[in-house]
């Protein structure tokens, strides 16, 4: 039946840009931390130069990230309520603990790494991996608990967030490693094998991410009516330029081609691919958070 | 047999609703709701094309669900479900994180622009506790709104609900809303007003 809304009230959006930035920063942090533990936790010697860069990045990003939450909430000086009144059914309460434990663990892990105590570095690296996974995975649960928003309410959300976190983490790590080697190392020489190894890893994680986004989209487009509306919004509606072109074409498919085709295997292409991925994942967070609540509920 | 524990519910008889907005005005006045936000309002939808068209009204208040997602997700436990089913927000505890607004399937919550905390309709529990009816119920000129105790089979709302076909908004959400409607129209519920680009 043809209908036209004459009068309705749509209140302000709940989550906005601040939350998208927060998710982006925690994602970068978790991704950097996991890369940092590859050498010191799992003994992959070729990634050893990433250890210190990774832990510094992970700690710094996770110290910045909660400030976006404080900007977002209406009563920032009541944030201590989060520690006093607990509701263990709420993902934000899980996050209260994770956001405290994870940076502390990062600092301890980094301290022992810089001191050269390999045994304790390894132990705190292993403690840190589940924390890093949780600190980003819980943000997926925050969205997945919004049961009326079809784009959020999927069990894929935590894993989708984790994979995109690792993708953005690798890309950021490539950029930071190049800058560090080029300008701040003694030899001023870039470790090309390391960069190409990371590039290969990035390419495979991009494929996994594309697979998850594709699965999500296919199921959305045949699911219930709200889900179909969201699929339409992403593919043909207002968010399609951001979702299709910026997030997936420029942010995933183009970097993947740049990374896997042997003809393009040069430092410049890896830098370009990494920059595209870092930007693309930011728009992924933006599309998920803002696009998810774009369609009015009532 | 009369159950001692109350379970309040609200019933809108849409056959009687004339879309006058008296409920919304009474609510604003009673609860001191700031400009720009509403605890209750009347959604108005025109169906069909002239001359074969009609305007439909859907008064919206909080559903005070039996299984409320807002209470589940509130990280500080500021959204509280009372034993009589009314869900209210502790204004001294809410940190304004807006998670309840993101999770509520009905879009009835808002951030109070003056206090920066979440607020919503709580069926005027301050009046109900004093033995009065909610403000919107008293304001309705056609008597389309009914409020009472579902656990009391002698209450007006129990008797009316027993004899009429009732429906809730979005039953598929599993929240078990306790705001019921007689003569609810699915097209009116689902009509969406997209933001202009």
Structure description:
Chain A has 298 residues and is mainly α. Chain A has helices at residues 17-40, 50-72, 81-84, 91-115, 118-144, 156-184, 192-222, 225-235, 240-260, 267-292, and one strand at 3-7. Chain A is globular, with a radius of gyration of 20 Å. With 197 residues, chain B is α+β, with helices and mostly antiparallel strands. Chain B has a domain at 8-66 and 122-187: Alpha-Beta Plaits (2-Layer Sandwich). Chain B contains 7 helices and 10 strands. Chain B has a 4-stranded mixed β-sheet. Chain B has a two-stranded antiparallel sheet with strand order 2-3. Chain B has a two-stranded antiparallel sheet with strand order 4-5. In chain B, a hairpin with a 6-residue loop joins β6 (110-111) and β7 (118-119). The chains are: A mainly alpha (298), B alpha+beta (197). At the A-B interface, β1, α3 and α4 of A face β2, α2, α3, β6 and α7 of B. β1 of chain A pairs antiparallel with β2 (41-49) of chain B.
SSE topology sketch:
The complex is a heterodimer of chains A (298) and B (197).
Chain A: E1 3-7, H1 17-40, H2 50-72, H3 81-84, H4 91-115, H5 118-144, H6 156-184, H7 192-222, H8 225-235, H9 240-260, H10 267-292
Chain B: E1 8-13, H1 22-31, E2 41-49, E3 52-60, H2 69-73, E4 79-81, E5 87-89, H3 99-103, E6 110-111, E7 118-119, H4 125-129, H5 135-139, E8 145-149, H6 156-163, E9 166-167, E10 179-182, H7 186-190
Parallel strand pairs in B: 1-10
Antiparallel strand pairs in B: 1-8, 2-3, 4-5, 6-7, 9-10
